[in-house]
Amino acid sequence: MHPFACLPATWYHLAVMPKEFPRLIIALTVTALVVGFLVAVVERITREPIATAEARAFTKALRSILPPDSPAPQPVVITLDDGTTNTVYIAGKAIAIEIATPNGYGGEIDILLGFDKDDTLYGYSVIRQHETPGLGDKIKSPHFANTLLKRNAFATDWRVTKDGGDIDAITAATVSSRAVLDAIRSALPLLRTTRINVAEPM
Predict the structure, then answer these.
(1) Tell me: the pLDDT tens digits for 107-161?
(2) Exposed, middle or buried by CB within 10 Å (0-12, 13-18, 19+), for 90?
(3) Does residue 133 sit within a domain?
(4) Residues 6 or more apart whose Cβ sits within 8 Å of residue 129
(5) For residue 202, is it within any domain?
């Protein structure tokens, strides 16, 4: 019998527990090390396949937003008047721009915009978003895309009609709609600078 077994249960556990601490600490430490090692191994194994899959998805989205007769898009770094730099993609006379906005209902929204030689919005694709399923995530829908496409970048008021602009917001998802339009407006200086300095003349 344990020498403390005759003590009340609470006193017994308090008396025995200190002797168990070293073994508990060792067990927890070993468990933490093993789990940490396994997580690191899994992350290392999956890092490259994930990166490859993301790169393929981005390339596919990039080609989908440009006119089909466009050459392969080439990345070009553009510096704006305020000193900020951004990467755009030149495909002959077409231009693709990846732009993000932090103003989504669920956080950052990252989109790809493709403009043809006349600066008309030819393609639109949502790369990342965390909007409400069934509401804000309709920014990915063909219906919303169709409200944006075939509009000239500089002749369109890229605001929702509620704010005096040209674009109908998604029902019950005005914040998400505004966020996308914020991103498009942010892309216009990049488009203008790229058109003037880099892209093939019209």
Answers:
(1) 999 999 999 999 999 999 999 999 999 999 999 999 999 999 999 999 999 999 9
(2) buried
(3) yes
(4) 104, 106, 108, 109, 110, 136, 137, 139, 140
(5) no
List, for the chain, all residue ranges whose pLDDT scores fall below the cut of 50.
Answer: 2, 4-5, 7, 11-12, 202
Secondary structure class of 3 (helix, strand, coil) = coil
Beta-bridged to residue 115, according to DSSP, are: 95, 121
Which positions ≥6 away from 162 have C-beta within 8 Å? 169, 174
Q: Measuring CA to CA, which residue among 163, 141, 173, 166 is closest to residue 151? A: 166
Q: Which of 44, 64, 84 is the last residue of a domain?
A: 64
Q: 166 in a domain, yes or no?
A: yes
Pair 31, 103 in one domain: no
One-letter amino acid of 121: L
Which amino acid, one-letter code, is at 125? S
